[in-house]
Amino acid sequence: MPTPSADAFAALARSSPWRWSTLRFTDRRTRSGGRIPVRAWLRRPDALRVETPDGELLQVVRERRSDVGVLTLGGGRTVSRPWPTEGEPPATRPDGLVAERPDGLSYDAPMYQDYFWVAMLDPVELADGLDHDTGEADGPPLLVDDLAEVDHGGRPAWQAVVRPTAVYEPRCACCPLLRTREIDILEYGAPMLDAYPEAFRVRLDVGTGVCVRTEEIGGLTLGAGHEMLIEAVDEPMGDDLFRDHRRRRRGFFR
Question: Average pLDDT over the chain, rounded to whole?
Fold first, then answer.
């Protein structure tokens, strides 16, 4: 197992795409206006099943690769980006965690409802910062304190109290893992809250790199965040699990 440190915490946060293939879990949002708790089965790179806790199917997702336009002397064409496990392998540290992620891969799949879901499963926004003016990588996005090894749902996890820096760059500014005044101003042009969290308590599952807990410290929404409980990792998941067997009639589910 890697040794916890601020650098290792960041490396774990960028390692998720290469640390697991399937995941079964429950997720609960504690943010104001958050959605109902859900149970999910995810098979990388592109298949997701989401149910209510009592087994009602909410959605089956079969995600496509992301596409990018390429201009050549002969004209333009569209190229599908490879999944992380198909592309160039990442540069790793001696402890096996990812030191640098390759560009040009389809990272943001599969998604349910919002990019908070994507960031929770692949929390690279906690690892690498971005200068909002230049668009260039620019130092750590977090100040990391009180790092500790903890148990989360029977699994080893790293917990830290973190404070986003000026170069924190979420997957999507409207649904970041960590809500800050600076990100709201970038997204909406003005602060959206009278007071923002002073810091955040964050947990990363050591085995998968997934962000299993966020909790706001201070501000108007003290304690808001999410909690994921991992039930199984890398268990077999057949194609039938990701088929929607509900009957359609006149455009509605019956």
Answer: 89
Sign of the torsion angle spanned by Cα atoms 91, 95, 96, 97: negative
| Distance from C-alpha of 20 to C-alpha of 210, rounded to nearest angstrom | 10
Per-residue pLDDT band at 112 (split at 50, 70, 90): very high
* Three-state secondary-structure class, residue 251: coil
Q: How many residues does the chain have?
A: 254
Proportion of the chain above pLDDT 70, given as a percent = 89
- The pLDDT assigned to 254 comes to 36
Question: From CA 190, how far away is CA 188, in angstroms rounded?
Answer: 6
65 pLDDT band (50/70/90 cuts)?
low
- What is the structure's pLDDT at 253? 41
Instruction: Please give the structure tokens belonging to residue 131.
Output: 């200068």
Q: Beta-strand (E) ranges in the chain?
A: 22-29, 38-43, 47-51, 57-62, 67-72, 75-80, 91-92, 98-100, 142-152, 155-164, 199-205, 211-217, 225-233, 248-249, 252-253
Q: How confident is the model at residue 251 (pLDDT cuts 50, 70, 90)?
A: very low
- Are the CB atoms for 46 and 81 separated by under 8 Å? no
Query: Cis peptide before 45, with omega less than 30 degrees from 0?
Result: yes
Burial of 73 (0-12, 13-18, 19+ CB in 10 A): exposed
The two three-digit tokens of residue 65, written as one number: 């690769």
Q: Say if pTM beats, i.e. exceeds, 0.70.
A: yes
Q: Which of 202, 179, 153 is nearest to 12 (CA)?
A: 202
